[in-house]
Amino acid sequence: MCGIVGYAGRRNAADIILAGLKRMEYRGYDSAGMALCATGDESLRLIRRAGKIANLEAALGAAPAATKTATLGIGHTRWATHGQPTEANAHPHLSRSGQFAIVHNGIIDNYLQLREKLTAQGYVFRSETDSEVIAHLVEECYDGNLRNAVALATEKLEGTYGIAVISSLHPDQIVAVRKGSPIAVGICNGETIIASDASAIINYTNQVIFLDDDDILCATGNAVEITSLKNTPVSRKPTLIDWDAGSIEKGGYDHFMLKEIFEQPDSIANALRGRLQPKDGTAKLSGMHMDAAEMARIDRISIAACGTSYYAGMVGKYFFEDIASIPTDVQQAADFRDRNPIILRDTCMLAISQSGETADTLAAVREAARKGASVLAICNVVGSTIAREAGRGVYLHAGPEIGVASTKAFTCQVTVMAMMAIIMGRTRRLSQHDGQAMIEAMATLPVLCSRVLEQNDAIRKLAERYADKNDFFYIGRGYMFPVAMEGALKLKEISYIHAEGYHAAELKHGPIALLSEDVPVVAAVPDIPGREKTIGNMQECRARKSPVLAIATEGDEAITAHCNDVIRIPRCPAFLAPIPVVIAEQLFAYHVANLRGCPIDQPRNLAKSVTVE
């Protein structure tokens, strides 16, 4: 969830690190810093600031000119776990001598024991973080070889980490190690760039090596060596990043989130491209690596995910049961692992994660594999840990998602699961004729999305009527129930408005007590099964003076008698309706947050990739 950048080469390290941190500010923006090694310095130069990276940039501009001569350095942008977002708690952290600096993503579970031991040995701690123990451990273990010192230090750590280390005693060398938190290495000519996200590297190369757990990297500008912690050489193949730096620019939009909402016709088209097979009434997802016989043996699907991906999984449950006739359960990924889940023979575990690095989902993947389940992953990031450990699954091809609040990843996850369900359904009771109709409908998804986006201005005007409210309910039935949950999540994430998503039938079992003229209700009520009963629930809300904003199908004029305002979506089959409805919800949440002056791309307390448990 935090951002790491490191550089070794011949250019100004500070400029390259700063540019990389800006690319990754969506991963953490409580504080930022860098440590630089300038030629002739006996100790490292440390520059840190609380707050946004702009504060660090200003401090760097006022730093001594010698800072610009450094050709080695590491930087970090933080999402606070241990300790307040202050300068003292910002990374990098220095050792006692000032000769070793570390940046760390993850959580060290045994840091209190290590801190107590190091304090007894005379080490003085200057921060409240768990990370600072690593700097002191590296110094304690140092015997002239930086790589060995890092290896020995990490053997004492319990938890998850991606760590990068430099030392003024080795002014051309970076050492990095990973366990559960990503580290990527850019393959360049005469320089090495490492980062926790390929977005910091893509300006310099599209050839990236992703470290595996317990890999340790020792790099200079001219050489990269990867070994195990036991110093056994390992080989890691480079991955080709199939997007460019322009994909992570705003492209004229005010916010990344708005840009990514508007990218959804293209991102869904990319998720569908080459995969639909209309003639046979099915799709082809080669990454599944399952033949028809293996799919036919699946007697249960268990979905594990967190946050927005969890709500996508809830939509997937409807797909797999309604289309493929496979009993399906959806579990929050942490609960999947913590509850010691029952995995029966011929269970397929489906792990969903935009980043492919979500710590709880990764733990669920490992637990499912231990219990003998077949594991499939749905990820957006090529080379991510979940994608590699699952061994088979499907990439979304949605392109990089920078806005912390997920948008295009959700709709692509739903799109991919619809294709999966059709493929599995064709091994069971889904006929070729019915499969053809569903595949033909899926091919229209980009157009359906575009038609919702055409209403952007109208939705913004509607948002003006509701932007001053501080409590919302979202309701829906069937396919619209998880969509209501996701709509509420979007609003609360970026506008800081209290919003709750409920099954429409559940509203009267308690939450209805909270309804009033100051509590609007957003009702997902397209013309699909469940519409009539949801209208009844809308009437119950209006009877208690709650304004009702309906998201309804074009041409459904009768709905206006049951609500205060309407957002229209194009008519489509029930199984596709979640996608246009959720896009309408995304636009509504965006405009409400923008009208309230909220920092939409970097909402407080949130990070894009949650790599801690």
Structure in words:
This protein is α/β, with parallel strands linked by helices and 613 residues long. The protein folds into three domains: 3-241, Aminohydrolase, N-terminal nucleophile (Ntn) domain (Glutamine Phosphoribosylpyrophosphate, subunit 1, domain 1); 251-443, Rossmann fold (3-Layer(aba) Sandwich), CATH 3.40.50; 449-597, 3-Layer(aba) Sandwich (Rossmann fold), CATH 3.40.50. It has an eight-stranded antiparallel β-sheet with strand order 3-2-4-1-10-9-11-14, covered by helices on one side. The protein has a six-stranded antiparallel β-sheet with strand order 5-6-7-8-12-13. A five-stranded parallel β-sheet has the order 18-17-19-20-21, with helices on both faces. α1 runs antiparallel to α2 (53-61), α7 (264-272) runs parallel beside α13 (408-425) and α15 (445-453) packs parallel to α19 (578-595). The longest helix is centred in the C-terminal third of the chain and has 18 residues, at 408-425. The mean pLDDT is 92.
Keywords for this structure?
Rossmann fold; six-stranded antiparallel β-sheet; 613 residues; eight-stranded antiparallel β-sheet; alpha/beta; 3 domains; Glutamine Phosphoribosylpyrophosphate, subunit 1, domain 1; 26 strands
Under CATH, the topology of the largest domain is which?
Glutamine Phosphoribosylpyrophosphate, subunit 1, domain 1
The proportion of strand residues reads 15-25%
Low-confidence sequence ranges:
none
Helical segment tally? Answer: 19
Number of DSSP strand runs:
26
For the report, how would you describe the main beta sheet?
Answer: 8 strands, antiparallel
Structural class of the secondary elements? alpha/beta
Assigned CATH superfamily of the largest domain: Aminohydrolase, N-terminal nucleophile (Ntn) domain
Shape: globular
Mean pLDDT reading: 92
Specify the CATH architecture of the largest domain. 4-Layer Sandwich
Radius of gyration: 25 Å
Strand order of the largest sheet: 3-2-4-1-10-9-11-14
The helix content, as a percent range, equals 25-40%
Roughly how many Å apart are the termini?
Answer: 11 Å
What is the count of structural domains?
3
Indicate the CATH class of the largest domain: Alpha Beta
